[in-house]
Amino acid sequence: MLLALLSGCSVDSVGSAFGGFGWPEHGISLQAHKMYDMWIAATIAALVVGVFVWGLIFWCIIRYRKRGDALPVQTRFNMPLEVLYTVTPVLIVAVLFYYTAIVQSDVDKLSAKPDMTVEVVGFKWNWQFNYRDAPGAEAKTVASTLGSTDVIPLLVLPTGKKIRFEETSRDVIHSFWVPEMLFKRDVFPGNVRNSFEVTLDREGRYVGRCAELCGTYHAFMQFELVVVSPERFDQYLAAKRGGASTPDAMGAIGFTGDERFAVTTRPFDSRRTGQSWNQSGTVAAGK
């Protein structure tokens, strides 16, 4: 049975799982690193308790195994032991609760003056990203990116900046999720604006998804997060504010060809016609 179980595991997958104890190791924000550290500390604490308990179990099995027909000495209670297994779990839970509250408060903390604000608008079944001049519903949009059936929307953001996300939905509940951020937040319709902040510290391109079942094409509701240096982001935003399209603005900061579009995911054919549509909106071979 063990051989059959291990045959389904690769060296990479086993190393990755044990390297982070099941938690993704490659977070891309300062908040993700803090959550990762919390997870590792909690898992190590659980393993210490587990090893102690397993040791006691096996010690009892070996030490007090049956050696004859004589009835062993019966003990009604052991006050020190009962105090130990009552106080110890309470202390463990208290410590875990304390550090969990600290990390959670830090992840949810909103600064008075973030470096930039992005309004995330979810709708069936795509995304709109509005770059705002300040936090709050009364702020003005200075540039925007709108996704469509044929083109995956790009959310371009800089490293090293406090970025405020303000989320709203035009119809039903969605959920804004980039797996590498190790964090997601639901997007509600109406006057509810869910807000959170991140500080990204790793450049790259990452697929984003809706993580709340929102209807027929929920699985197609994707976007791409593009993290660049602050200098390149300033050039990108300047191009967008000057009226450039998102592909043209991506070209202005050095991306060429298909790199100007999403590379981590691609549009799905929601027309059910047997044809596939590429990033530029032209019909490709039937798939």
Automatic annotation (TrEMBL):
It is found in: Cell membrane; Membrane. Keywords: Copper, Electron transport, Membrane, Metal-binding, Respiratory chain, Translocase, Transmembrane, Transmembrane helix, Transport. GO terms for biological process: ATP synthesis coupled electron transport. PROSITE patterns: COX2, COX2_CUA. Gene3D superfamilies: 1.10.287.90, Cupredoxins - blue copper proteins (2.60.40.420). Its cofactor is Cu cation. It is a multi-pass membrane protein. Its EC number is 7.1.1.9. One of its GO terms (cellular component) is plasma membrane. InterPro entries: CcO_II, CcO_II-like_C, Copper_CuA, Cupredoxin, Cyt_c_oxidase_su2, Cyt_c_oxidase_su2_TM_dom, Cyt_c_oxidase_su2_TM_sf. Belongs to the cytochrome c oxidase subunit 2 family. Subunits I and II form the functional core of the enzyme complex. Electrons originating in cytochrome c are transferred via heme a and Cu(A) to the binuclear center formed by heme a3 and Cu(B). This is Cytochrome c oxidase subunit 2. The lineage of its organism: Bacteria, Bacillati, Actinomycetota, Actinomycetes, Micromonosporales. The gene is coxB.
